[in-house]
Task: structure prediction
Amino acid sequence: MAVTPAVEPDKTGGPAPAGGEAQQQVGGGLTIQILRVFAENRLAVVGIGIIVFMILFCFVGPLFYHTNQTNAQLALTTSPQNAPPGSPLCTHTPCPLGTDNTGFDMLGRIMYGGQVSLIVGFAAAGIATILGVLVGAVSGFFVGWVDSFMMRIVDVLLSVPILYLLIVLAVIFHPSVEILILVIGFTAWLVPARLVRGETLSLRVREFVQAVRVMGGGSPRIVVRHIIPNTIGTIIVNATFQVADAILLLAALGFIGLGVPAPQTDWGSMIAVGVNYADSGDWWEIYPTGLAIVLVVVAFNFVGDALRDAFEVRLQRR
Result:
């Protein structure tokens, strides 16, 4: 006579959850634990606040603080040039941060330039992350000559200073927002490709991957459905650093005159113009823009560091 095993109660006195339900509870508990570890990092919370503030400042701010940022001829004829903050010469706007050499309101200019810098930063980081994840996952999963070929390409490109490569590409292609996004994105995918490849080399020999193979799962399905989702922690952490790096690279290109063409601007181009008037004491054309760059880059680094610590919980449980 077969004996039916008793259902072992849980700590609350009820029956133990089934397998799928238990997995959902474990996954949900792990997510909550990751969020808790992230929230305990005060610098990360400050970083999130800075990022949200800068996004609202750059994209929502112009809806309330109306300034001319596109018509240089109008600015030259209606606004004083290089006026200090709060100058009485400013008649159309209060100019709380003064004006630049063209007569553009500096506060509005920082908002306008921040839109370009943030758009390029997020878009270039997205391209670099997607391309790096695909190359790294394919290279690490198939190994052999595929891995050797792809990694030699990565090694060659990594041996070239990225700023030099960006300068060459920016000179070849006429700079615009779209071109700068593509140029920065297609030169920044090397690091995520290396990171994802390392994770894939470890995952490809795990039991769940072998089980999918036995069940008839093809290589593309394994890479897309099982390998890449299990590297999500590494991908997210690196993506935050990619945004900060892209903003810095755009600022560097803008500073040497390879940023977006006028009348558009970016934070690097604004600093490049402002340093020409540093000897005159026009600090308002340099420091506020530089502070915006520092705040955004540091904020993304704070968030990236906290995400790395938070996802270590997931790695310990995996």
